[in-house]
Amino acid sequence: MNGGRNFTSGGVERYMTLAWNSGARPVIILNKADLCSEYERESILLTAENAAPGVDIYPVSAATGERIAELTSVLTPGTTIGLTGPSGVGKLTIINYLMGETIQKTTAQQTGDQRGRHTTTHKEMFRLPGGFFLIDTPGLKELQLWADEENLSDAFQDIAELAEGCRFRDCSHQGEPGCTVQSALASGELEYRRYENYLELQKELKYLKIR
Hints:
Elements: H1 9-22, E1 27-30, H2 38-51, E2 56-59, H3 69-73, E3 80-83, H4 91-99, E4 124-128, E5 132-136, H5 149-155, H6 157-163, H7 180-187, H8 192-210
Parallel strand pairs: 1-2, 3-5
Antiparallel strand pairs: 4-5
Helix pairs in contact: 1-2, 1-5, 5-6
C-alpha cells in the first residue's frame, strides 16, 4: 500500500481467479498500511473491495503488527494457508510476525521504483503457533492463469449476476440487444475497467482451453 507497483485492480482480479480455481477461500492482505496516509488507505481499500466483492480484506502492517492478529482469529487449528504475491510486498515479514521470531531475513524494496527483490527462492511450509500451517512461495513477476470460465465467474460475481438477466443465454456482453451487463455499464453500476479486464481474462482462458 506504499505507492509501489504491486497493487492494481487487474492484479487482484487475476489472483482471485487463480485462488478460486485452486479450491481455496481467498483472503486479500494489503500490507504496509503504516506507509500511506489515511486517505490513501481508504482509497486502496475501496479499490480492492470493488475488484473482489465479498472477499475478506485485511489492511495490515507486518512491520508494526497492526491488525496482523486478525489474520489468525478467523482460522481453526489444522488450517493450511498458501501465501502468494509479487516480490517486495512483505510476505516474509508477515511470516516472521506470525511465527513470533525471525526465521528468515528480509530485504528492502528498491528505492527507485518501489519494486521488490526476490528474497524467497523456493517453496517452504511452516508450522505456526496455534496449529496452523503456512506455505510460502517465491515472489511472482508475472501471474499466468490456469483456470476455467467457471472460476472467472467466481472472481467476477457481480458480472455473473448481471449476466443472468441478459436476453440471450450465450450473450457475449459486447453489443447484443437486451444485455444487462451493457446496461450496467451505461448506468455506471459496473466499472468499465473491470468489464474490460473480465473480457481480457475470458479471452485468455479461452485461448488456454484451446491450447
